[in-house]
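Good morning,

Both structures are done.
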Amino acid sequence: MSPGDPPPFEIEFYADESGDVPCLRWIREDLSSTKRRALGMAMNEVLQHHGVQVVGERSWGRQLGEGLFEFRVDRTVKPDDKIAEKLVLRVFCHAHGDRKILVLHGYDKGKSSSPRRQQREIEVARSRLASWRAIEAEKRKKPRGRGVGAAKPAARRKR
């Protein structure tokens, strides 16, 4: 892949029925600038380029089953002249379509690393995936083209 080529996977963020994008909100509002920067770089340099194959790299991912995988950012970073910061972030994703990664949910495991918390966070991601699948199924049901009750295409004006 040459430097000008786009990454082989496109990253999308789950949006709920109201249009809220909870994982993006978590990144923007709950993470420190150091954690945001590190997660952004990891998503750009690892997740976008390897997609679901990150699960083959034990340090970067884990398959959770039922179409869900975990992207892990476990690093120690030292921005500029600041004190080193340990990052333990988890982002739950779903691969779909033509090389697309749907980011469903994330949390800072460094703040609370209990197995019970991990299971709760996975359940949130599973719930969002089920919601997304239902929305996608409804989209596929809707008729395409002109059917009964479909709007007519706009007429072209002659010049």
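Second structure follows.
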Amino acid sequence: MDIKLTREKIEQIVITARKEVKKANLSQVDLVEADLNGIDLNGVDLSQSDLRKANLRQANLVETELFWTNLSEADLSGANLRGAKLRGAKLFMANLSEADLGEAGLVWADLRQANLNKADLREANLRGADLRQANLTDAILPENWQEVVRSY
């Protein structure tokens, strides 16, 4: 992960890709502690990127690809992650309070100690997810979530 991008460069890449009717590829980028509050990354590929401690409050991450992405300690409060692909994502101690994770793919995601207070996980795929010590207060969870998670 040698690539370090500014918010302005990220937005420029996304706008250019959308004009060309293709998906913006920001996989394997270093966005540690980046301030991306409210950014629109709908459908962008951020797979295997490092977003530790990033500010993604109120971000639009609908159908974003976040396969094996490190989001540990990131602030995703109020973010829209509906339909996002988070297979194997590391969300250790992430703040997902009031986030929309409906229909998100969280297969094998690490959600240990994550704050999911009032998060909406309706229809999310939590197969193999690790939810040990996660705050699930007032979270809306799929019907069978306790049967499919790895640890709670």
